[in-house]
Design a protein that fits this description.
This protein has 153 residues and is mainly alpha-helical. The chain has a domain of 86 residues: Cytochrome C biogenesis protein (Helicase, Ruva Protein, domain 3, Orthogonal Bundle), CATH 1.10.8.640. 62% of the residues lie in helices and 0% in strands. The protein has 6 helices and no strands. Helix 2 packs across helix 3 and helix 3 crosses helix 4. The radius of gyration is 30 Å and the shape is elongated.
Amino acid sequence: MKVWAPWMAVLFVVVAALFVGTVGQQEPTPTERAQSVASTIRCPTCDSQAVSSSDTPSAQAVRSLITDRIEAGDSDEAIRDYVDSRYPGQNLLLDPAGSGFGGLVWALPVIMVVVAVAGLVVRFGSYGGVSRTASAADRDLVAAAQQASEDDA
């Protein structure tokens, strides 16, 4: 049980943090939703700048479109898909897609964490439960060292 206690404590902390992070949040206001969605969409005329931080007329039009879609009751994902469909060939979404080659961006960090944790478990798993006994030669060596230190004192 001593071996599993630290792992159980870590698991408890992670579950508690996830619970607090997901349950403790309030519903965002329409303005906060619009800002959040606008920060995930690239400006059609700017290079690698989000719509939320651009002042170009096209960025203002996209922000207006986002506000209109929120008022119409669309979800954030539906709004992103709608804006992306309005500008074909420009790939305005700043978040990579969750499928195809873009899915590697999401999958690789998870795979690396799993491999790292598995490596740590394998490496440190052998430390517990191994008992080593001193041989007669070891005891003689320690006794000789103690005798030498007593003679020097």
